[in-house]
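OP here, attaching both records as promised.
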Amino acid sequence: MRSFKDGAGRTWDVSIDAWLIKQVESRTGFKIGTLLDNNMVGFEELVKSPVLFVDVLFVLCGDQAAKFPVTEEQFFRGLTGDALEAAYEAFREAFISFCPSHQRKILRAVTEKAKSAQDLATERVLQKIESLDLLTEPSASTSSISASETPGSPASAHVG
Protein backbone atom coordinates (compact mmCIF):
# COMPACT_ATOMS: atom_id res chain seq x y z
CA MET A 1 0.00 0.00 0.00
CA ARG A 2 1.53 3.28 -1.09
CA SER A 3 -1.52 5.37 -0.33
CA PHE A 4 -3.35 6.32 2.85
CA LYS A 5 -6.40 8.24 4.02
CA ASP A 6 -6.00 11.14 6.42
CA GLY A 7 -8.40 12.00 9.22
CA ALA A 8 -10.55 14.03 6.84
CA GLY A 9 -10.96 11.07 4.46
CA ARG A 10 -8.65 12.42 1.74
CA THR A 11 -6.60 9.79 -0.08
CA TRP A 12 -2.91 10.55 -0.52
CA ASP A 13 -0.51 8.66 -2.78
CA VAL A 14 3.09 8.46 -1.62
CA SER A 15 5.90 8.07 -4.11
CA ILE A 16 9.60 8.61 -3.81
CA ASP A 17 12.03 9.47 -6.58
CA ALA A 18 15.41 11.18 -6.75
CA TRP A 19 13.88 14.64 -7.31
CA LEU A 20 11.63 14.31 -4.27
CA ILE A 21 14.52 13.06 -2.14
CA LYS A 22 16.41 16.22 -3.09
CA GLN A 23 13.35 18.35 -2.25
CA VAL A 24 12.88 16.66 1.13
CA GLU A 25 16.49 17.32 2.08
CA SER A 26 16.31 20.92 0.87
CA ARG A 27 13.09 21.72 2.72
CA THR A 28 13.42 19.63 5.89
CA GLY A 29 17.12 18.82 6.24
CA PHE A 30 16.25 15.13 6.45
CA LYS A 31 18.20 12.83 4.14
CA ILE A 32 15.96 10.01 2.92
CA GLY A 33 19.04 8.41 1.38
CA THR A 34 20.35 7.66 4.88
CA LEU A 35 17.33 5.60 5.98
CA LEU A 36 19.29 2.38 5.61
CA ASP A 37 22.49 3.57 7.31
CA ASN A 38 23.57 2.35 10.76
CA ASN A 39 20.96 -0.40 11.23
CA MET A 40 18.20 1.75 9.76
CA VAL A 41 18.56 4.50 12.35
CA GLY A 42 16.97 6.92 9.87
CA PHE A 43 13.68 5.03 10.02
CA GLU A 44 13.89 5.09 13.80
CA GLU A 45 14.48 8.86 13.71
CA LEU A 46 11.31 9.33 11.64
CA VAL A 47 9.25 7.10 13.96
CA LYS A 48 10.44 8.97 17.04
CA SER A 49 9.53 12.34 15.55
CA PRO A 50 6.05 12.50 14.07
CA VAL A 51 6.55 16.19 13.24
CA LEU A 52 9.66 15.41 11.18
CA PHE A 53 7.85 12.51 9.51
CA VAL A 54 4.85 14.65 8.55
CA ASP A 55 7.21 17.38 7.31
CA VAL A 56 8.86 14.81 5.03
CA LEU A 57 5.50 13.44 3.96
CA PHE A 58 4.15 16.90 3.17
CA VAL A 59 7.04 17.48 0.77
CA LEU A 60 6.40 14.10 -0.87
CA CYS A 61 2.67 14.87 -1.20
CA GLY A 62 3.06 18.58 -1.93
CA ASP A 63 1.72 18.45 -5.49
CA GLN A 64 -1.41 16.66 -4.29
CA ALA A 65 -1.87 19.15 -1.46
CA ALA A 66 -1.87 21.99 -3.97
CA LYS A 67 -4.52 20.23 -6.06
CA PHE A 68 -6.93 19.49 -3.18
CA PRO A 69 -6.17 22.35 -1.98
CA VAL A 70 -4.92 21.54 1.51
CA THR A 71 -2.73 23.80 3.61
CA GLU A 72 0.26 22.50 5.50
CA GLU A 73 -1.67 22.96 8.76
CA GLN A 74 -4.65 20.97 7.44
CA PHE A 75 -2.28 18.22 6.28
CA PHE A 76 -0.64 18.03 9.70
CA ARG A 77 -3.96 18.05 11.56
CA GLY A 78 -5.23 15.20 9.41
CA LEU A 79 -2.48 12.83 10.53
CA THR A 80 -3.22 11.35 13.93
CA GLY A 81 -3.87 7.86 15.21
CA ASP A 82 -4.69 5.30 12.53
CA ALA A 83 -4.20 7.84 9.73
CA LEU A 84 -0.63 8.46 10.92
CA GLU A 85 0.02 4.73 11.11
CA ALA A 86 -1.33 4.28 7.57
CA ALA A 87 0.92 7.12 6.40
CA TYR A 88 3.96 5.36 7.91
CA GLU A 89 3.02 2.17 6.05
CA ALA A 90 2.55 4.04 2.77
CA PHE A 91 5.90 5.81 3.21
CA ARG A 92 7.69 2.54 3.99
CA GLU A 93 6.17 0.90 0.90
CA ALA A 94 7.07 3.87 -1.29
CA PHE A 95 10.65 3.77 -0.03
CA ILE A 96 10.91 0.03 -0.62
CA SER A 97 9.57 0.50 -4.16
CA PHE A 98 12.18 3.21 -4.78
CA CYS A 99 15.07 0.90 -3.85
CA PRO A 100 16.79 -1.53 -6.24
CA SER A 101 15.42 -5.09 -6.25
CA HIS A 102 18.20 -6.62 -4.13
CA GLN A 103 17.46 -4.09 -1.36
CA ARG A 104 13.68 -4.52 -1.71
CA LYS A 105 13.95 -8.20 -0.76
CA ILE A 106 15.89 -7.34 2.39
CA LEU A 107 13.60 -4.45 3.32
CA ARG A 108 10.48 -6.57 2.92
CA ALA A 109 11.99 -9.26 5.16
CA VAL A 110 12.94 -6.66 7.79
CA THR A 111 9.47 -5.12 7.59
CA GLU A 112 7.80 -8.50 8.16
CA LYS A 113 10.10 -9.25 11.09
CA ALA A 114 9.37 -5.85 12.65
CA LYS A 115 5.60 -6.41 12.26
CA SER A 116 5.92 -9.82 13.93
CA ALA A 117 7.93 -8.30 16.78
CA GLN A 118 5.33 -5.58 17.26
CA ASP A 119 2.47 -8.11 17.26
CA LEU A 120 4.32 -10.21 19.82
CA ALA A 121 5.00 -7.17 22.02
CA THR A 122 1.33 -6.20 21.85
CA GLU A 123 0.26 -9.68 22.88
CA ARG A 124 2.72 -9.76 25.79
CA VAL A 125 1.59 -6.39 27.13
CA LEU A 126 -2.07 -7.40 26.83
CA GLN A 127 -1.31 -10.64 28.70
CA LYS A 128 0.39 -8.66 31.48
CA ILE A 129 -2.58 -6.33 31.72
CA GLU A 130 -5.01 -9.26 31.88
CA SER A 131 -2.97 -10.88 34.64
CA LEU A 132 -2.99 -7.80 36.87
CA ASP A 133 -4.75 -8.21 40.20
CA LEU A 134 -5.89 -4.67 40.80
CA LEU A 135 -7.49 -5.52 44.14
CA THR A 136 -4.22 -6.47 45.83
CA GLU A 137 -1.37 -4.39 44.43
CA PRO A 138 -2.51 -1.80 41.92
CA SER A 139 0.62 0.36 41.91
CA ALA A 140 3.10 -2.51 41.94
CA SER A 141 1.28 -4.36 39.17
CA THR A 142 1.12 -1.50 36.73
CA SER A 143 4.72 -0.46 37.31
CA SER A 144 5.89 -3.81 35.95
CA ILE A 145 4.93 -2.76 32.41
CA SER A 146 7.74 -0.60 31.13
CA ALA A 147 7.45 2.00 28.38
CA SER A 148 9.82 -0.02 26.20
CA GLU A 149 7.31 -2.88 26.20
CA THR A 150 4.50 -0.72 24.89
CA PRO A 151 3.72 -1.80 21.32
CA GLY A 152 4.65 0.80 18.74
CA SER A 153 7.28 2.39 20.95
CA PRO A 154 10.66 2.73 19.25
CA ALA A 155 12.21 0.34 21.77
CA SER A 156 9.67 -2.42 21.07
CA ALA A 157 9.84 -2.14 17.30
CA HIS A 158 13.62 -1.92 16.87
CA VAL A 159 14.96 -4.67 14.62
CA GLY A 160 18.62 -4.78 13.93
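Record two, same layout:
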Amino acid sequence: MTSNPTTALQLRHLWAASHLLATTSPSVSAHLATRLLHISSEKGINLPDSVERSVCNACGTVAVWGINSHVSKQRKGKDKAMMVFECQMCGRSRASAVPLAKRRRGSRARKSKLKAAVTIAAPPPPTKADAKAEVGVVQSSGKAAGAQSLANANSRKRAKSRKGNSLSEILKAKKQQQQASSGGGFGLDLMDLMKTG
Protein backbone atom coordinates (compact mmCIF):
# COMPACT_ATOMS: atom_id res chain seq x y z
CA MET A 1 0.00 0.00 0.00
CA THR A 2 1.09 3.53 -0.58
CA SER A 3 1.25 5.92 2.34
CA ASN A 4 0.31 9.55 2.35
CA PRO A 5 2.96 12.19 3.11
CA THR A 6 1.65 12.89 6.63
CA THR A 7 2.03 9.25 7.63
CA ALA A 8 5.58 9.18 6.27
CA LEU A 9 6.42 12.35 8.20
CA GLN A 10 4.85 10.91 11.35
CA LEU A 11 6.87 7.70 11.03
CA ARG A 12 10.09 9.68 10.43
CA HIS A 13 9.38 11.81 13.49
CA LEU A 14 8.70 8.77 15.69
CA TRP A 15 11.88 7.10 14.42
CA ALA A 16 14.06 10.17 15.09
CA ALA A 17 12.50 10.87 18.49
CA SER A 18 12.82 7.25 19.67
CA HIS A 19 16.51 7.20 18.72
CA LEU A 20 17.14 10.56 20.33
CA LEU A 21 15.64 9.40 23.62
CA ALA A 22 17.06 5.85 23.55
CA THR A 23 19.80 6.49 26.14
CA THR A 24 18.29 9.35 28.17
CA SER A 25 14.74 8.01 28.55
CA PRO A 26 14.46 4.38 27.43
CA SER A 27 10.81 3.99 28.45
CA VAL A 28 9.63 6.98 26.37
CA SER A 29 11.83 5.77 23.50
CA ALA A 30 10.25 2.30 23.72
CA HIS A 31 6.75 3.81 23.65
CA LEU A 32 7.56 5.88 20.56
CA ALA A 33 9.13 2.89 18.79
CA THR A 34 6.10 0.73 19.65
CA ARG A 35 3.86 3.43 18.24
CA LEU A 36 6.01 3.47 15.08
CA LEU A 37 5.61 -0.29 14.63
CA HIS A 38 1.84 -0.09 15.33
CA ILE A 39 1.23 2.69 12.78
CA SER A 40 3.33 0.96 10.11
CA SER A 41 1.48 -2.34 10.54
CA GLU A 42 -1.91 -0.55 10.69
CA LYS A 43 -1.25 1.33 7.43
CA GLY A 44 0.40 -1.69 5.76
CA ILE A 45 3.78 -0.01 5.36
CA ASN A 46 6.82 -2.28 5.12
CA LEU A 47 9.69 -0.92 7.18
CA PRO A 48 13.30 -1.40 6.06
CA ASP A 49 15.26 -4.30 7.57
CA SER A 50 17.54 -1.90 9.43
CA VAL A 51 14.53 -0.45 11.28
CA GLU A 52 13.16 -3.87 12.12
CA ARG A 53 16.56 -5.05 13.38
CA SER A 54 17.07 -2.04 15.64
CA VAL A 55 13.67 -2.13 17.38
CA CYS A 56 12.50 -5.00 19.56
CA ASN A 57 9.06 -6.13 18.38
CA ALA A 58 8.09 -7.31 21.85
CA CYS A 59 8.92 -4.34 24.09
CA GLY A 60 9.77 -1.60 21.58
CA THR A 61 13.24 -0.94 22.96
CA VAL A 62 15.57 0.77 20.50
CA ALA A 63 18.64 -1.44 20.27
CA VAL A 64 21.91 0.06 21.40
CA TRP A 65 24.21 -2.85 20.56
CA GLY A 66 26.37 -3.91 23.46
CA ILE A 67 24.35 -1.95 26.03
CA ASN A 68 20.75 -3.14 25.94
CA SER A 69 20.96 -5.74 23.17
CA HIS A 70 23.32 -8.42 21.93
CA VAL A 71 24.11 -9.84 18.48
CA SER A 72 25.61 -13.24 17.83
CA LYS A 73 26.29 -15.25 14.71
CA GLN A 74 25.36 -18.90 14.31
CA ARG A 75 26.47 -20.94 11.34
CA LYS A 76 23.81 -22.99 9.53
CA GLY A 77 25.39 -25.22 6.90
CA LYS A 78 28.14 -24.32 4.48
CA ASP A 79 26.64 -21.23 2.89
CA LYS A 80 24.18 -19.86 5.44
CA ALA A 81 24.51 -18.11 8.76
CA MET A 82 21.97 -16.78 11.23
CA MET A 83 22.34 -13.49 13.06
CA VAL A 84 20.60 -13.73 16.42
CA PHE A 85 19.44 -10.40 17.88
CA GLU A 86 18.66 -10.58 21.59
CA CYS A 87 16.94 -7.79 23.52
CA GLN A 88 18.33 -7.68 27.04
CA MET A 89 15.36 -5.66 28.32
CA CYS A 90 12.70 -8.33 27.70
CA GLY A 91 14.89 -11.33 26.82
CA ARG A 92 13.32 -11.91 23.39
CA SER A 93 15.64 -13.16 20.66
CA ARG A 94 15.04 -13.07 16.93
CA ALA A 95 17.04 -14.75 14.17
CA SER A 96 17.70 -13.41 10.70
CA ALA A 97 19.31 -15.34 7.83
CA VAL A 98 22.48 -13.89 6.39
CA PRO A 99 24.10 -15.32 3.25
CA LEU A 100 27.82 -15.97 3.50
CA ALA A 101 30.30 -14.80 0.91
CA LYS A 102 31.27 -17.56 -1.48
CA ARG A 103 34.83 -18.84 -1.44
CA ARG A 104 36.99 -18.62 -4.47
CA ARG A 105 38.02 -22.11 -5.35
CA GLY A 106 40.91 -21.09 -7.61
CA SER A 107 42.98 -19.61 -4.81
CA ARG A 108 44.32 -22.97 -3.62
CA ALA A 109 45.35 -23.98 -7.12
CA ARG A 110 47.17 -20.68 -7.59
CA LYS A 111 49.01 -21.10 -4.28
CA SER A 112 50.19 -24.61 -5.18
CA LYS A 113 51.42 -23.40 -8.60
CA LEU A 114 53.29 -20.58 -6.87
CA LYS A 115 54.95 -23.01 -4.44
CA ALA A 116 55.99 -25.24 -7.32
CA ALA A 117 57.52 -22.29 -9.15
CA VAL A 118 59.41 -21.22 -6.03
CA THR A 119 60.82 -24.69 -5.43
CA ILE A 120 61.93 -25.00 -9.06
CA ALA A 121 63.62 -21.59 -9.04
CA ALA A 122 65.36 -22.12 -5.68
CA PRO A 123 69.18 -21.91 -5.89
CA PRO A 124 71.30 -24.99 -5.19
CA PRO A 125 72.74 -25.36 -1.68
CA PRO A 126 76.09 -23.59 -1.13
CA THR A 127 79.37 -25.52 -1.21
CA LYS A 128 82.39 -25.15 1.13
CA ALA A 129 84.24 -23.02 -1.43
CA ASP A 130 81.28 -20.63 -1.63
CA ALA A 131 81.19 -20.38 2.15
CA LYS A 132 84.92 -19.49 2.36
CA ALA A 133 84.55 -16.83 -0.31
CA GLU A 134 81.59 -15.29 1.53
CA VAL A 135 83.53 -15.17 4.82
CA GLY A 136 86.37 -13.27 3.12
CA VAL A 137 83.94 -10.78 1.58
CA VAL A 138 82.16 -10.24 4.90
CA GLN A 139 85.44 -9.64 6.76
CA SER A 140 86.73 -7.10 4.24
CA SER A 141 83.38 -5.32 4.04
CA GLY A 142 83.21 -5.31 7.87
CA LYS A 143 86.43 -3.27 8.07
CA ALA A 144 85.16 -0.80 5.48
CA ALA A 145 81.82 -0.54 7.24
CA GLY A 146 83.56 0.15 10.57
CA ALA A 147 85.60 2.97 9.07
CA GLN A 148 82.51 4.41 7.39
CA SER A 149 80.48 4.31 10.63
CA LEU A 150 83.34 6.07 12.49
CA ALA A 151 83.38 8.82 9.87
CA ASN A 152 79.60 9.16 10.11
CA ALA A 153 79.79 9.42 13.90
CA ASN A 154 82.43 12.17 13.71
CA SER A 155 80.43 14.14 11.16
CA ARG A 156 77.31 13.82 13.34
CA LYS A 157 79.26 15.16 16.34
CA ARG A 158 80.54 18.12 14.34
CA ALA A 159 77.05 18.91 13.05
CA LYS A 160 75.65 18.70 16.58
CA SER A 161 78.31 21.01 17.96
CA ARG A 162 77.73 23.55 15.15
CA LYS A 163 74.02 23.45 15.83
CA GLY A 164 74.49 23.90 19.59
CA ASN A 165 77.04 26.72 19.16
CA SER A 166 74.87 28.61 16.75
CA LEU A 167 71.88 28.44 19.10
CA SER A 168 73.89 29.60 22.10
CA GLU A 169 75.42 32.37 20.01
CA ILE A 170 71.97 33.54 18.91
CA LEU A 171 70.78 33.65 22.52
CA LYS A 172 73.85 35.57 23.63
CA ALA A 173 73.44 38.08 20.82
CA LYS A 174 69.76 38.56 21.65
CA LYS A 175 70.55 39.14 25.33
CA GLN A 176 73.29 41.67 24.48
CA GLN A 177 70.91 43.47 22.11
CA GLN A 178 68.25 43.71 24.83
CA GLN A 179 70.79 45.11 27.31
CA ALA A 180 72.03 47.63 24.77
CA SER A 181 68.53 48.75 23.81
CA SER A 182 67.47 49.25 27.44
CA GLY A 183 70.16 51.89 27.70
CA GLY A 184 69.34 53.57 31.02
CA GLY A 185 67.81 51.91 33.98
CA PHE A 186 69.24 49.72 36.60
CA GLY A 187 69.97 46.75 34.36
CA LEU A 188 67.38 44.69 36.17
CA ASP A 189 64.83 42.46 34.62
CA LEU A 190 61.46 41.40 36.06
CA MET A 191 62.88 37.90 36.55
CA ASP A 192 65.73 39.41 38.64
CA LEU A 193 63.18 40.88 41.02
CA MET A 194 61.25 37.64 41.31
CA LYS A 195 64.31 35.69 42.44
CA THR A 196 64.44 34.95 46.13
CA GLY A 197 67.59 34.73 48.11
